[in-house]
Every structure is written in structure tokens, then in C-alpha cells.
Amino acid sequence: MTEDVQKHSVHTLVFRSLKRTHDMFVSDQAKYIPLDEQSHKLKMAVKLKADYGAVLHMPILKEVKERVPQPTSSMQLQLGYAQPVSDEPEYTITGTHAYPSGPGVALTADTKIHRNPSEAGVHSMALALPPSQASQDASRTAASVPEIHRHAGATERSHPPSTALSLMESGGTRTSALMRRAPTMPKPQWHPPWKLFRVISGHLGWVRSIAVEPGNQWFVTGSADRTIKIWDLASGKLKLSLTGHISTVRGVAVSSRSPYLFSCGEDKQVKCWDLEYNKVIRHYHGHLSAVYGLDLHPTIDVLVTCSRDATARVWDIRSKANAHTLTGHTNTVATVKCQAAEPQVITGSHDSTIRLWDLIAGKTRATLTNHKKSVRSVVLHPRQYTFSSGSADNIKEWMFPDGKFIQNLSGHNAIINTLAVNSDGVLVSGADNGTIHMWDWRTGYNFQRIHAAVQPGSLDSESGIFACTFDNSESRLITAEADKTVKVYKEDDTAVRMDCFGLRSRYFLR
């Protein structure tokens, strides 16, 4: 019996609580809080004095006086100023030119006539301004108090004034045209289009990495077929195949300081090949997972590798010592670049950040968090102190040394695997869906898009671009692709450009 009473009493309490909650909130949920007129007036008065106090003394235009009512005396008392009362004639200040005629512009009796301000208007204008501020405020215009009241809190509805005001100064005339000019995009430099020049076959798996040797005689590719192949750059013929990796070769680099080739792969191995004997002479052990990329320092004998273990490691090439382990990323480090100037090491990661590293201390100098998706590629401009990063959300340009953001390059809506840039300011982005976009570095203008057909016998889905680079003459672009081929692109020397006068002029290769 006691349990029944408790159950009944608890049920009653819950029901009452629900009913009270319903009565308190649900019944009034669609009603807005009524506006308190007194507090609104006080708020507007404070806002007027704080934001527009410097221009409240300025005269009111005749057109504005006719269009809006004057403030009441109570409002003037609240604002702490009084409207000046004078018997001076009212004046109209107009532009120095009559209303322009044009298609769709109807001329009226008022706009046909060009009225100059009267002398009384000029004197009253000069008297209205304080002498010390006359030269500073000559180019300013002030809205009336009712105008400010009417537009307060509704800036998105306001429109810029369309009338031109001519303000008179002692000794001359000054015109201030209140017109907002639309932002204009800087004119991009014209670049000749690129066209497919050669397709090189030979790998039995996805081609994941490319490097060109400093003498520009040959280039090297690493593939998912676990081999490294060296190709003649001029003819595209295979010169040599190197075997030794037991998994996909994800990165290759050729030293400009010694006859060495460096490679890394998903087998956690980093190898140094002596190209005089075509065999491995050093291994660099330390990474705990697949090694995704590597780069050589341009001036010192240092190799930097990045891995799926979320670290980048700095190696002494000769002693094989692990000089630094760069930790801080929270996910796979997908790309690494080195340069002689500070910061000397730049990494991009799947944690969507870019880190600039102090090579001497082995610590992060700056972390760039603008990207929202994985950063898979970073490229340094060969002449400017800038770099670019590629991600699925955007391609971004940055300025060294602190990673100041320059601009976004939007439009390549795919996973960006690779970037390359030449001295002419052509930025190339290659994506997972097989598309290549060409950009003007300075303006971010996308001047060409390429989607080359896949190799016969390959699936359409196997059209990804995994790596791309310019050769040292910058006249050829080499891409490594998912259809197991290497493609070479050249500038189209038959391209015809249109100059600013619409005349055709033939472009020749430099």
C-alpha cells in the first residue's frame, strides 16, 4: 500500500513539474520581448555622442532637411547639444558637373541644370566649421541626427550616397566624390599553355616520386613496384633499374653535392645509393613506420625524412647519425622541404598543420593552422622568399620567415598530392582525380586545366597525379601518375595570345 502511495505522489509531482514548465516557456516562445522606448532612446543618445560626436557640429544638407524630420528638443537635451538657430539663407551644395547622360539614365529638370553654390552658402559653410579644423574637415560630410537614428543598427541596409559634394576651401575648390570603387583583380601575367609531349611506360605499379639530377641529363622515379628507375631526360629511354626496397618507394632525391641518390619507402627504410657503383652504401635506421618523403639540405650534408610515425628526422649523411627528431605533429608527416635560409625545414602533415622548424635547436618555430584538411605537399618558390601548400580545402601561399598568409588559390576541388613551381611564376597542382591545374603565382589566376587520358589498359579511376616537378631548364614538366606512366609536358610554342587591343601575336619559347 505504501509503495502505491509513493508511486502516485511521484507521478503527480512529475506531472505538475511538466505542466509548470510548459506554462512558463512554451506558451510565450513565439513572442518577442517588447522594446522599451526610454532605454532605446538612451542607448541611441550614448551611441550618437560616442561614435559621431566629432561630426555632429557639421551642417545639414538642404535635401536631408526636407527628407527627414528634425530632432526634438528633448533629444537635443539628451545629446548635450542644441541645434544652432540662425537666419542665414539655406544653401545647396552640388557637384561640379551636371548629371551624366547615358543609356537608361533619364534626365529631369533638376539634373539638367548645373547649379553652383551661392556665395551665402559658401560663407555659411565656412562659418560652420571651426577655423582650426577647416582644412581637415573639408573633405568630410556629416549626416544629420535623424539620419544617424534611422540607420543605426542597419548598416547592411544602407547605401553609399550617390551625390557628389563640392566643399569650398579658402583659396580654391575641392571636390569629394562619395563613390566606392569596386575591388579590381590584378592583371595576371600571360603564360603559354602546356601540352603533353611524351608518355613514358616501364613501371609495373603506381609511380609515387620523381627527382631530376642537377646536370639535367636524367631523372629518377620511385614506384609501388618497389623499384627505382633512372630515365634519360632527352629521349625518355630507361637507363637503369635499382632494386632493394621491399615496399613502395615514396621518395627520391639526387644530391647536388655528391654522387648520391637517396630513397625512402613504406618499408621504413631510408637508403643512400652510390651512383658510381649503383648499390646501397648507407642505411638510416630510426623511423617506426612508413617513410613518406625526404629532402636534402642545399648547403650542408644533412638529410631530412618524414614518416607516418608523426615525426621528421634529421640525419647526418656521412655518419648516419640521427641529429634531431622533430616531434610535434599529431598525425602522419606527409611532406618535408629544406632551404638554406631560416626556417631551414618546413613540414606538412595530415593533422592539417604546417610547421616551420629551427634546425639548430630542433624545435618548432611556427605552426600554421589555416588548413582544414591534410597538407600533403609543400613547395618553395625558387626566387621569392615564399612557399605554397596544397590541401583538399585550398592551395595557400605563405611568406617566410614566420609563415605570413598571402592568398588562397581556390578551384582545384580534389585531394592535392603534389605542387611544383618555376621561376616564371607558374604553379602546378596535381590531384588524386588525375587533374592538373596551372596557376599564376602572383595573382592566383588559374590559366589552364589538364586532364590527360589514362594509359590504355588502366582503369579510369587510376588517373591520380602523385608527384610532379620541373626539370632544371624549367621547359619541361614531369608527372608521376597512377596509371604506371611518367608524362612529360612542354610549353606550347605555337600558342597565340590576344593582347589588350585584341590583336593576335605569336608567342615563341624563350
Topology at a glance:
Layout: H1 2-25, H2 37-52, H3 62-67, H4 73-79, H5 109-112, H6 119-128, H7 134-137, H8 145-151, E1 164-169, E2 172-177, E3 194-201, E4 207-212, E5 218-223, E6 227-232, E7 238-243, E8 249-254, E9 260-265, E10 270-274, E11 279-283, E12 291-296, E13 302-307, E14 311-316, E15 322-327, E16 333-338, E17 345-349, E18 354-358, E19 363-368, E20 375-380, E21 386-391, E22 395-399, E23 404-409, E24 416-421, E25 426-431, E26 435-440, E27 446-451, E28 465-470, E29 476-481, E30 485-491, E31 496-498, E32 504-506
Antiparallel strand pairs: 1-2, 3-30, 4-5, 5-6, 6-7, 8-9, 9-10, 10-11, 12-13, 13-14, 14-15, 16-17, 17-18, 18-19, 20-21, 21-22, 22-23, 24-25, 25-26, 26-27, 28-29, 29-30, 31-32
What does the model show?
- There is one protein chain.
- The protein is an alpha+beta fold and 510 residues long.
- The protein has a domain at 194-202 and 250-262 and 290-491: 7 Propeller (Methylamine Dehydrogenase, Chain H).
- 15% of the residues lie in helices and 36% in strands.
- It contains eight helices and 32 strands.
- It has helices at 2-25, 37-52, 62-67, 73-79, 109-112, 119-128, 134-137, 145-151; strands at 164-169, 172-177, 194-201, 207-212, 218-223, 227-232, 238-243, 249-254, 260-265, 270-274, 279-283, 291-296, 302-307, 311-316, 322-327, 333-338, 345-349, 354-358, 363-368, 375-380, 386-391, 395-399, 404-409, 416-421, 426-431, 435-440, 446-451, 465-470, 476-481, 485-491, 496-498, 504-506.
- The strands form nine sheets. A four-stranded antiparallel β-sheet has the order 3-30-29-28, with no helix packed on it.
- The chain is extended and about 90 Å long.
- The termini are far apart.
- Mean pLDDT is 79; it is low at 73-105, 132-143, 152-178 and 499-510.
- Belongs to the WD repeat PRL1/PRL2 family.
- WD repeats lie at residues 200-241, 242-283, 284-325, 326-367, 409-449.
- One of its GO terms (biological process) is mRNA splicing, via spliceosome.
- InterPro entries: Prp46/PLRG1-like (IPR045241), WD40/YVTN_repeat-like_dom_sf (IPR015943), WD40_PAC1 (IPR020472), WD40_repeat_CS (IPR019775), WD40_repeat_dom_sf (IPR036322), WD40_rpt (IPR001680).
- Keywords: Repeat, WD repeat.
